[in-house]
Amino acid sequence: MKNNSNKSGIPRETVTLILKEERFEVEKQKLIDKSHYFAALLSANFLEYGQTEHVINYDISSILLQDFIDWVHNDKIAFTSATSYDFEELDRLLDLLELSGVFTADTLQHLLVEDLTNRLERHYFTPPKIAIRAWSLAQDLNINVLRDLSLALCLDRFNELPLDSICELSKENFLKLVGNINVRATRSYLHQIKREWIKHHQDFSFPLNIIENNKVKYLHAIITFGHNNREQYIHCWDGKDLLELTSFEYPTDIIERCSNPGRPLKGMQITARRYDLYLCGGEYDYLGSGKFNKNIWRYSLTSKKWFFETVMPVERRHMITVYLKNKLYLVGGVGRDRNALDTVDIYDIYTGDFTYCYKYFPDKDVWKEIYLGDICELSSIKYSLPDTPILALQTMSCYIDVVHPDEMVLKVVTDTCNVK
Which residues have C-beta within 8 Å of that of residue 44, sequence separation ≥ 6? Predict the structure, then answer.
């Protein structure tokens, strides 16, 4: 083994890793400390003990091995940026995650899992092809949070998954996708994908009616809060029993603002989409204080974490919040100076943008598009769309009428007309 000196002048012992025709010098003690595989290989219990060179017999690239060595020496992943969603970079991270399992480098695996899960949480930036590979790899490595987040992304954006990636799935994993009640795809498309998978594998032992029998079951849920107004509880009614599914606290930012007595957040709305809860708007202290929460926060029921999502273009409280497909609608409510709002802000979670604003004309019961600059202070561009209503109000669920706050009006926004 070679002896070099570190910055302190203290001799250090190195070993050489040989991959095909290339040679990589690594500091021995750091390699032992960070990999159970090499700790065992370089121990006195193995014949390789005392050797200065070790051949890597795994089918990996030299770039991947160098990425691993860079982490061993520097305690960080050199090639990545936390804000990057480039496919090649994410694929490289997954390669390194797979190698961390081979070399049993637990610290590296933990670092990569945290990095990848944080990126998957911002799912509208993540290439769907990455999600399907991350899901398969997370199952192999038994990493539950990464597995669940990547599966959720695969189900939500199933139509965007590459056909070749789907066809390469094992039969077990393929059935987990097409047989999942949460998959967002038409039955005709699922049957088309099924035929392609069968053709690729020449496996005709496909379960009968797995797609036809796949029906969504809706359960009623309610969110309640404890005596300290910090912890929230989600209860679910299955027709027989009221079950507590989980609990969560407000985001730290809101808890700190509400820490003093008499400064609660009032009029905020919480709505759900698949595996996430969205907390929108509200007013601090007392109604009419003018101290609004303009942030939209998202709580992942999978990772149990809050994430800042975006800033609302207009302050609102006691509004209707509803998801239609991948768009969050903020309808009406009360704004500054207790003014009743007759506009709608629409947030697209796939792009991260507020795209349109609409105004409600009660005499005609229609919503018409208006200048974003005049209402939302976002732009002076006017988009031209047909004047046909894009939303309809039906008697279903409850909200507070901002004109007559003592009355409860039974209305809900439903998906109709030209909503895309």
Answer: none
- Measure the CA–CA gap between 128 and 125, rounded to whole angstroms: 9
| Residue 180 forms part of a structural domain | no
Whole-angstrom Cα distance, residue 129 to residue 162? 6
For 136-148, how does the pLDDT look when each residue is reduced to its tens digit (9 = 90+)?
999 999 999 999 9
Show the domain range for 331.
220-370
Higher-confidence residue: 225 or 301?
A: 301
Please tell me the distance from the alpha carbon of residue 106 to that of residue 282, in angstroms, as a whole number: 43
Q: Kindly state whether residue 173 falls inside one of the protein's structural domains.
A: no
Structure token digits, residue 44: 């006195």
Q: Are residue 229 and residue 364 in the same domain, yes or no?
A: yes
129-143 core/surface letters (b: 16 or more CB in 10 A; e: else): bbbbbbbbbbbebeb
The proportion of the chain whose per-residue pLDDT surpasses 70, expressed as a percent, equals 77
Residue matched to tokens 């996430």: 276
Q: What is the mean pLDDT of residues 80-103?
A: 87
Strands (E) in 51-138, as ranges, are 53-55
Strand-pair partners of 222: 235
* CA 396 vs CA 98, 377, 409: distances in Å: 49, 32, 9
- Scanning the structure block, which residue is given the tokens 């204080």? 289
Contact 303, 117 (CB under 8 A): yes
